[in-house]
Amino acid sequence: xxxxxxxxxxxxxxxxxxxxxxxxxxxxxxxxxxxxxxxxxxxxxxxxxxxxxxxxxxxxxxxxxxxxxxxxxxxxxxxxxxxxxxxxxxxxxxxxxxxxxxxxxxxxxxxxxxxxxxxxxxxxxxxxxxxxxxxxxxxxxxxxxxxxxxx
Length: 151
What we know:
The protein has 1 helix and 7 strands. By secondary structure, it is mainly beta.
């Protein structure tokens, strides 16, 4: 694996310390972990959706937690499997935890469970103070006449 030196970028930037941490963690992702399968889609200009296949889980067995720039989805089956005798078991209902790093100002708009799919809607909400604004430029003003008398 390659390592990158980001120190030249720090000469002209301020506050991007989190970027290097994010890039380091992305490079260490374990591709072998693929359960449960999921999609990430862009549904609008400032909206996204994470769709996760959670067949066999009830809504009360799932948790969606949004923290600062992080989304964690957990599933823990509460069924007693010791009573069942399977001839073939192809539906995985094992415990899982999936974490997603969120960009700044991404908020969870809602979550729903339908037909074995967990849908988590995300929206970018930029605060008014951070939105671009137009600054009016004042031009030179006409001189004020104090007295209109001849000298």
